[in-house]
Amino acid sequence: MQNTTEKNQISDLGKNRRMFLKTAGATAVASAILISCKKKDDDDPAPSDMGVNLGSGDTGILNYAYALEQLEAAFYIQVVANSKFTTIFSASEQQLLKDIKAHEIVHRDFLKAALSTSAIQDLEVNFSSIDFGNRASVLGTAKAFEDLGVSAYNGAGQLISNTANGLVYLGLAGKIVSVEARHAAAIRDLLNPKSADFSGDDVVDATTGLDGAKTPAQVLAIAGTYIKTKINASNLPTA
Q1: Which residues of 138-176 are buried (b: 16+ CB within 10 A; e: fewer)?
Q2: Which of 20, 72, 115, 170 lies in the 20 to 30 Å Cα band around 178?
Q3: What's the whole-model pTM score?
Q4: C-alpha to C-alpha distance for 117 and 53, rounded to whole angstroms
């Protein structure tokens, strides 16, 4: 009887996580549709020998977000496609990771659509350090990516212009970062079930109760480990 109860609890947790993430994804899509209808407010990022130029102003910030979403989408696509995916993860965990993959693809594609001809090229990733057939390696990397994504959006929000378009972009960023935070919490729960790690002191300031924030330079220094394409963020706003 105890085993049956535990299995039911685990099944319920999986269903709750999936519903949680599906709702989050739908909200982000609705916001992305709004931004895709807005006029671009910056010129196309110019090619540069120093790497793929993200551009300046709000376009630069959107390309920065687009670069990160490309990385995350590529990661989860490879996670789900791996031959050991169905053996190292339970059925509910597989569905959770598939849902996250779907969200990241939506984020990536809508940012690309919103940027239109100002979008940077597809980036080449390097996941050679990740063992996609190993549960700990996959979840550890997923945790790192999701935590990084949250801190990236938190840090970039203040760099968006105080204009009509900027307010739309800021609203979108807020929707996406809330989804990324839910991803992070779900992944952390997979790593350490029924613990306080979903909002651990390593990501949430115990004094303020707020998530951490990183600058684009800090984020790209970390993300660059997994991106082969050189990125030039020198024209991004800094304040």
Answers
A1: bbebbbbbbbbbbbbbbbbeebbbeeebbebbbebbebb
A2: 115
A3: 0.81
A4: 13
Q: 3-class SS at 125?
A: strand
Share of the chain above pLDDT 70, in %: 79
- Quick: pLDDT tens for 2-13: 444 444 444 444
- Would you tell me how many other CB atoms lie within 10 Å of the CB of residue 134? 14
DSSP category for residue 124? P
* 49 class by beta-carbon count within 10 Å (0-12 exposed, 13-18 middle, 19+ buried): exposed
Classify 158 as helix, strand or coil. helix
- CA triplet 107, 108, 111: central angle to 5 degrees? 80
Tokens of 33: 């549709």
For the chain, list the domains and their CATH numbers: 57-117+131-232 (1.20.1260)
- Per-residue pLDDT tens for 114-162? 999 999 999 999 999 999 999 999 999 999 999 999 999 999 999 999 9
Torsions phi, psi of 127, nearest 5? Answer: -105, 25
Give yes or no for a contact between 101 and 73, defined as CB atoms under 8 angstroms apart.
Answer: yes
Q: Residue 57 carries which side chain, given as an amino acid letter?
A: G
